[in-house]
Amino acid sequence: MTNDLAIALHSRTTSAYPPRGNMQLYRLKAVVTFTCHRCGQAKTSKLVAILDGDYSQPLCNGCYGKLSAEQPQEALQPQHATSQSEEPTEPDDAVEATVGSSPLDPPLPSATDRPDLYLTQSDHVYGAAPGWTLAVRRDHLTRGWCPVPEAVSRRFESSLPTGALAHLTLVHPGQPMRPEEVEQRVRVEHGESGARLTGVMWPHDTPPGTRFSFIWQSDTAIQVTSTLLDSPIAVDGRVVRHAYDPRVLTRDSGAPDIAMVRDADALVMLTVRRLGLLDELGRAVLPEPALVRNVSEHLFAPSPAQLHTTIRRLLRLGRLTTRYGSRTTADGPIQYPEVAGQERVELLCYSPERRPPTATELHEEERRRSGPVRGHTVAGHLMYIAHLGKEASPEARQNYREDHARAGLVGSHELPHGYTYVREHQRGA
After folding, report:
1. What residue spans of 276-383 are helical by DSSP H?
2. Strand pairing report for 211-218 and 183-191
3. pTM for the model
4. Please, are residues 101 and 62 in contact by the beta-carbon 8 Å criterion?
5. pLDDT-wise least confident of 197-211, 220-234, 325-339
6. For domain 262-355, which architecture applies?
7. Domain 118-244 belongs to what architecture?
8. Which strands form 54-59's sheet, in the order they lie side by side?
9. Could you state, in order of their start, the residue ranges of all structural domains in the chain?
10. Which of 101, 191, 251, 294 is the most exposed, having the fewest neighbouring CB atoms within 10 Å of its CB?
11. What is the rounded radius of gyration, in angstroms, for the C-alpha atoms of the chain?
């Protein structure tokens, strides 16, 4: 395994981060399997750290984060592998890279918005039962679960301990429902991030971002209801019939696995949507250099000339537009929207297209309803944990700095107070 790891680092390295003491972190173009020298666990990852230049002592990213947390914290901008490797990097014609950063949901422009994307309404009381709303993520839909907000989570601890079953009634107007979808038995789980309901059977082909309202009717009974729109709309060709959160639809719609996208236009648009900073209208903004860097590391990336031609064409067609952010220094974090008096920075912007659906789109929606839900890539994301009296681990803070700087995203590279960060991972079959 030592030789295999050495070969992987020298021939399949996308980038290397600045050394941290006697450690060097590498990002590979494809995952490798190795045993961490520190924790002794078998790991499969694209991130590998090497201790003292000895390939027999690889570290997993978790142990690297814990150890490097003791080092001074500087912005971690990865460098090309040849500038860090002791031996020259061999060219690799069979590139196996996916997008070379972990997508994440950075803090939204408004300080009052929460990037965990569900809105707690614990102050709204229906009789004696608190209510809340959830804009479902792709992960909620495919894994059949939903988070429970803080106020309700505290009550669950006494009424519904871990493993307890609750009766869930699902009301989804405008769509035929199977009996097992309407009346469900779901399980309660309590963990570090609060309570959650598992075993939820969401209506098939529910678009990400669909809002569901929850009412806790009794100790073991919960009613979940969606709101039917006056008429369906098409958002970038996806038919939406119920009230939704545009931010979630932007982030979670499209190809589940961006690594398999071959079309240059789709690859550019998905990268902006997955990596850009979101606003309340579902628009996503990303600096062009960050877009080019991430798309260029993709398995099916077009040539640099073709990529720039693609971006210019998408701008001419209006599928991408330009917006402006700002920064205080030439290498400082970008703020969006722009702040008066700061240096202006041009950003590429994706804006969702909203219009009445065509007959073809309505037909495609009906076809998808009969198809199975498949495995997917879960985008990296922030998770709110302050209400649990917990703080993010050094590893999570380090991961956020690295991924945020690596992707060239707008905003500060420091993890927001009260949140932890979960890196990109695979879920489902």
Report:
1. 288-296, 304-317, 359-369
2. unpaired
3. 0.62
4. no
5. 325-339
6. Orthogonal Bundle (1.10)
7. Beta Barrel (2.40)
8. 54-59, 42-51, 23-35, 13-16, 79-80
9. 2-83, 118-244, 262-355
10. 191
11. 23
